[in-house]
Amino acid sequence: RTVWFQLVDEGTRDAFARTSVDELLLPEGAIMAQFQNRVFGKIARALPPDWGSFILRVYPDRETYDEEGGQPLDPYSLLDGLGELKELIVEVPPRDIDIMEMELKYLFLETLEWREPRRFCESAGRDWIYQGEQELTAVLSRELVKNYEAWNQCRGDNQKVFLVGSGPGTGKSRMLDEMKNLVCQSAKLSENEALIDRMKDIYVFNVTFENDTAATGSLVKRDVPEFDISYRMLYQLVKEGKKTPWATFVRKVKKLYSRLPFTIERVIAILAQLKKVDDMQKMTVILCVDGLERLENDGSKQCDFYRVLSSICSFLNSSKAFSICVCSASMQYEALADSTLKHKYLIPPSLDGNRICVSWTRSARQVLDDIGGHGRALELLWEVMDRPNITEMTDPDYIVDEVLDGLKMRYGSVFNSGTFADPKTCKELVAAVISRRRYHLTDKVGQSPFTVETLRRLGFFHWTDERRLECAFIFIVLMVKKIPKEPREIDSFGDNLPRTRSTCEQFEHFVAFIRSLKSIAYCGTQVALSEFHTGARFGSVDGIDIIEPHSRTVVENIRKVEAKPDTYFTNRRGYVDISKMKTIHINERKGFAGDIVTRVELIEKGSYRCDEVIQCKLFSTTRKVGKEQYLKEREDAVSGDSDVFLLITSAEVADFDLPPRCGVISIVEFEQYFGSLASRQYRSLLKRQCFTC
Prior knowledge:
This is Crinkler (CRN). The chain is an alpha/beta fold. The protein folds into 4 domains: 2-111, Phosphatidylinositol 3-kinase Catalytic Subunit, Chain A, domain 1 (Ubiquitin-like (UB roll), Roll), CATH 3.10.20.90; 131-331, Rossmann fold, CATH 3.40.50; 353-410, no CATH class; 544-690, no CATH class. It contains 27 helices and 22 strands. The strands form 5 sheets. Strands 12, 13, 14, 15, 18, 19, 20, 21 and 22 form a 9-stranded mixed sheet that branches. A 5-stranded parallel sheet has the order 6-7-8-5-9. The longest helix is centred in the N-terminal third of the chain and has 20 residues, at 133-152. The radius of gyration is 35 Å and the shape is elongated. Mean pLDDT is 82; it is low at 488-494, 496-503 and 688-693.
C-alpha cells in the first residue's frame, strides 16, 4: 500500500531542504523500521556516509510532532493505517550531530529504563536470615575505605576487586544479593561521613553467567572480553516489554550498534542519562558478577576467566563513578596466585542451621549438625523435613540418606569424581580431616590429586583460619564407606553407624568411633603418637611413633576387665583376641566413666606392643581436674608405665606436667581434637539428660 510522509529538519522544524510530501509503496504488515529503511534509502546521498536509518524519528502526524512531549513511533510497531490520510512526519537531525549519541538518543534509550536487578539466589534459602553479616562488614569496611580514598585521589589502580570464593551451594549468590546492604552497613561501620553520604543512592548491576544469560563457551567478542560484562549490564536495563532472549539481544546489539562500543563505562553513562544525573562522579555503582567459573579457565592469563576479570579490574581503575566490583566463582585461588590483579577474598559464612530451623525435633537437630553449614544441604534438609511423612519418630538415618541423595542428584559430577569414588583418595582425605594437620591453600593433600584449594572449590570442605581441613560428618561417613577394609570386616563400619547417628549416643561410644576412623585413615602408615592424637596435651612422647596394621572394629566388653589379658568377652563376637589389633574395646560403663582399650604397636628404637587406654569421664563438679586426681584415674586405668593413657573429660583440667605417654583432652581442647565433629561430642555429654527425656 501507499504510505505518505514529509521530511522535517529537526533544527528548523520546517520541511527538509528541497523536499515536499512524498510517497512509498510498502507491503501489508510492514513495521516502522522497514519504512525508516526505505525513506533513508531515498535521502542517503544527501546525508553523512556513517549515518543509518536509526537516525530518523517518525511521528504519526504533524499535530503529534508539534505537540509538547509528543512521542515518536516505535521502530518495531506495525504501520497499520498510518500514512494514508495524514502524512507521517520524518525528522532528520542536523548534519554535525555525534552519530553515536544519536544512536542512543533516537532509538536505543527508548527501550531502556532503570530498575532494581533480579536476585541471583532463587532457591529455598533466599529468604532465610542472612548470617555472617558482622564478620563480613568488618572486612568490607576496611577495604571499602581504602578503595574510596584511592578513587577520590584519582589513584584507581589501588582499588581492589572483591572475590566471593567457595564451592557450589555454599551461599555465593546469596552474598551477592546481600551486597548492597553489606556495603551500606560497612560504610556506617567506617564512620567515614563522605562514604556514608554516598550510600543514600546506590545503583546495583547483577551480572550472571548462569540461567538466562548463561555463558555459551565463547565470549561475546573474543578480542573485547569486557563486552561479556557490559552487554549483560545493558540487558538488565531493557524494559520488560522490550526484552528478547539473551542470544537474540546480543545479535541485535552487535548488528545494529556495531560501531558503538558498549563498554562498562558507557553503560553507566547510559544509566546516568536515564536517571538524569549530570555528573557521573556523583554516582555510586555496585557491579556484582556471579558464576565466573562458567568461563573457560586453564589457569593461564590468556583464558576467558582471567581476561574477563582483568577487564573488570581495568574498568574499576578508571571509573568516573565510585564503583564497587564483587565477583563470585567456585574458588579460583590458583588462577590468581601469581596475578598482579588487586583483589580481596570474601568467603561465604558457614550457616548455623539452628538459627533457621528453630522448632525442629531433637533427631532433626542432630541431622542439622551432621550436614554442617552447607547451604544447599540445609535447603534439602528443609525440604525433607517439610514432607508430611516426616515425624518425630522418623529415623535420622533416613533423613540423612534423603539429603545425600538430593546432593548427589544436584552435584553428580562431584560425587562421581575421584573425591568420593576412589578408595585411596578417600583414605587420604579422611586422614587429612581427622589428623587436624595444617595446610596452605596450594598444598597437595597426601598422595591424592587434590590441593586444599581444589577441595574447597567442591563446597564440602572448609579451610579454617588455623589452616586445617574440615568437612561435615555425613561426608566423612560417605568417604569412609569407600575405603577398603579386611575381607571379613566389609560391613563392620556400617554396623557401627546407627550407634554414632543415634540421638543419645554415649560419650565413650563416639570417642571409640573417632578412634576407629583414625585406624582406617592411618592404616599401614607410621605417624608420631602426638600427630595421631593431634589436639591432645601430652607429657613426653618425643620420638614415639604409632602404626596401625589394620582398620579396627568397635566392640563392647560384657564386663570391665581390670587385668591385661589377650582376650575379652564381648557383646558382639564372644571372645575376641585383642592381640590381633583388629578391635577397639569399650569396657563396661561404670558410673559416668567408660574406658576404651586398644592394643597398639609403638615404635621407639624398635617396635613393641602395649595398651592404649582412653578414659572418657564426665564430672559433675565445676572444679578443674588436678594432678592428684589425674594420676589416680591413670592408676585405675593402666597396668604399666609402657601403656598409653589419654583422659578425655567434660571438665577443665589444671595446667601441670603430665607423665610420659600420658595425655589429656579437656573440654577446652574438644574443638582442637575433634575439629568439625566437636558438636557431636558436645551432644554426647547430654546423654544423662537423654535418659530422662
